[in-house]
Specification:
Chain lengths: ~350, ~325
């Protein structure tokens, strides 16, 4: 089975350390056009107190995976296979009633756009207090005090009066702080942050990231951090999972993946990212083509239609055989380790300077 | 909030005045001799002059307008006696004060509206919510299908069918008739039941469709998903988060429907031979009884303005973003 390690090159045991283990997860939606394979055989682990970053383009299955972890998919149109083990409990087979007790309590989620993700009809305080009352059985008064306490923790000024404000009276950054307060109110063991800073401007973004890091220190929660911003991920995450077309294509520690990426898709991602202090003579190289349709994903390696290195692989393996993702530090690609090394040093590294 | 109310009420008074002025001058631009209309066949010039004087038509137009408008506020005197405020003039046809004929008909209109409202709100919103909750299931399909069929029905079609089944052929029920609610509440209820049900059927279908679609829309809102992600019960999320957002469009339509019903449910009244405001309006326009037409129109305009203000107040209650801006 696949596991993430923090120590380089070493295989971590699938032991009590991995708090959340996703095993061969497959999520399919039936739509009018056919069956969408949103997640197709995904495995990863998250350790207690660590942050796993998940990167990938829109439609790569990042958000679906995490909504499925919380059981927020539509059960009528979605089929879920595989295992999502939270401390040994399989969330795929856990009934809705039990899931309700986990959500917002043991596992909480922060959404992308705090303006639409907070209800406009209720005060911030009430929205923070609600899950606390539900999961701890606290009284209204206690829950309100807790909401004030949480607002203080996330750095909202004058929390005693602000607790009675409505979300539209908050600025974007404050709303996201309130959202974080709401997610952390029951002291969850796992926090899923789905692009929590995408809707915010850069200075606020930095504040929110710092806040999340501080709170992780304090609460000791594991975090799954979903983003398509590689700059943010290098700052936040311990481990990194690169997703493409509903699959994991590369995995390793953040340093490993960003410094020495081994998958052509990751190379493409990094080459297409502008850098401060980067050479202006080096043009940004976009990945050719567009993301594949999940209704009818390409055969073999899902990246092969856009990959510029398929000719290096003997025969038509790229289009017929699906590459597997090995354990630990790994990339799902048919290129041999030596080929990857050579291509990376000769062609990719110069672009990243 | 008080400031808002005062502002809206002042606005409403101004609008009422403008509507009054507009209707008044509109009617007097019509090339009709109203005195001749109420004079009958054997009309001598002397008779005509008397009628002119009685109706106040001999005075110059500005004076007539002033008398009409001030009559609404302060009442005015006619040859047949004092017409107390709000005086809407005298009917050309019956010689009765317009306000009195309206007030005479209003209990029926009010009964019809309130009874129908109770039925279509309970059934319409109830079935709409049920369909949204059970979205995609057989229940949803039956409810949605039935609501499409029923909303394409018309009162004048459904009414005679129900009358045929329950009154003419079987005699289970009496033909609809209005009884005074305070005197005979039982008879009132039975007398109005068929009109209520038939009228409410059409409205129910519309409210079912509307509440179902707005609920489904609201259930896809991100904040509704957030509430679920917090571990709130599905029913709680449904009624607290999604329902709250659905109220805005529902209240909007409800306000318009209510003001229309209170200014007269013409088709329902004619179908069941009931004499309400709607009947009064139609009869008066057929006989060119312009003071009555004007009176009914102003009466309806009053409800439209009133319900507009009530709907705005409801918005403020439902959505804090409206309240504070």
């Amino acid at each position: 089975m696949t596991t993430l390690t923090k120590t380089e090159g070493e295989k971590a045991p699938t032991g009590p350390d991995s708090f959340l283990s996703v095993r061969d997860l497959r999520v399919r939606f039936s739509t009018e056009d056919g069956i969408v394979k949103a997640v197709d055989g995904l495995s990863f682990d998250v350790e207690r107190g660590k942050t796993l970053g998940i990167v990938g383009e829109s439609g790569s299955g990042k958000s679906v995976t995490n909504l499925t972890v919380l059981g927020l998919h539509n059960p009528k149109t979605t089929t879920v296979e595989g295992e999502i083990l939270l401390e040994g409990q399989d969330l795929v087979t856990t009934p809705e009633k039990e899931m309700e007790k986990l959500r917002g309590n043991k596992v909480a989620m922060i959404f992308q756009d705090p303006l639409t993700a907070l209800s406009p009809y209720y005060t911030v305080g009430r929205q923070i207090a609600e899950p606390f009352m539900k999961h701890t059985g606290a009284s209204k008064k206690e829950a309100r005090d807790r909401a004030v306490e949480m607002l203080t923790k996330v750095g909202i000024p004058q929390p005693r009066t602000r607790v009675d404000d409505y979300p539209h009276q908050f600025s974007g950054g404050m709303r996201q702080r309130a959202m974080i307060a709401m997610a952390l109110v029951c002291d969850p063991d796992l926090l899923i942050a789905d692009e929590p800073t995408t809707a915010l401007d850069v200075t606020v973004q930095a504040q929110i990231l710092d806040l999340l890091k501080d709170l992780q220190q304090e609460f000791g929660s594991a975090i799954i951090f979903i983003t398509h911003d590689l700059g943010v991920i290098s700052d936040m995450a311990d481990d990194l999972l690169v997703m493409y077309s509903g699959r994991a294509v590369e995995r390793g520690s953040v340093r490993e993946v960003l410094r020495e990426p081994r998958h052509p898709y990751t190379w493409g991602l990094l080459s297409s990212m502008p850098r401060l202090g980067g050479s202006t003579s080096q043009p940004l190289t976009p990945i050719p083509g567009s993301p594949p349709s999940l209704l009818n994903p390409p055969s073999g390696c899902p990246f092969h239609p856009r990959c510029t290195f398929t000719d290096k692989v003997s025969g038509d393996r790229c289009s017929t055989e699906r590459p597997t993702l090995g354990d630990g530090r790994a990339a799902a690609c048919h290129l041999t380790a030596e080929q990857k090394q050579t291509i990376f040093i000769d062609k990719i590294q110069p672009r990243l300077r | 909030m008080l400031q808002f109310l005062i502002r809206r009420l002042t606005g409403a008074v101004v609008i009422m005045f403008l509507i009054g002025a507009f209707t008044f001058f509109l009617f007097y631009t019509v090339p009709q001799d109203f005195a001749a209309l109420s004079c009958g066949k054997n009309c001598s010039p002397e008779n005509l002059a008397v009628i002119r004087e009685n109706l106040g038509l001999d005075k110059p137009l500005p004076t007539q307008f002033w008398e009409f408008m001030s009559g609404i506020v302060a009442g005015r005197d006619f040859p047949q006696g004092h017409c107390s405020a709000p005086c809407l003039g005298v009917s050309f046809e019956s010689g009765e004060f317009v306000w009195d004929s309206i007030i005479d008909r209003f209990p029926l209109t009010l009964s019809l509206t309130v009874g129908g409202l109770v039925i279509f709100l309970i059934l319409g919103l109830g079935s709409g919510l049920l369909a949204a909750w059970k979205r995609g299931t057989v229940v949803d399909k039956i409810v949605s299908g039935a609501s499409i069929v029923l909303s394409s029905f018309q009162i004048y079609l459904l009414g005679p069918i129900v009358l045929g089944l329950l009154v003419y052929s079987t005699g289970i029920m009496e033909f609809p008739k209005y009884y005074n609610f305070t005197e005979e509440p039982g008879a009132w209820f039975l007398g109005m039941l068929i009109p209520w049900v038939v009228m409410a059927t059409i409205f129910t279908a519309q409210y079912t469709r509307m509440s179902r679609s707005t609920m489904i829309e609201q259930l896809q809102e991100e904040h509704v998903r957030t509430a679920r992600a917090k571990g709130m019960r599905q029913s709680y999320v449904f009624f607290r988060y999604a329902w709250r957002g659905s109220l805005i469009p529902i209240v909007t339509i409800l306000g318009m429907d209510l003001s229309a019903l209170l200014s007269g449910a013409v088709v329902t009244e004619f179908t069941f031979d009931l004499a309400g405001i709607g009947r009064l309006a139609v009869d008066s326009s057929l006989t060119k009884d312009l003071p009555v037409t004007m009176g009914v129109m102003l009466f309806g305009a009053f409800f439209i303005l009133l319900l507009n203000i009530l709907v705005d107040l409801a918005y403020a209650y439902i959505d804090p973003r409206v309240r504070l801006s």
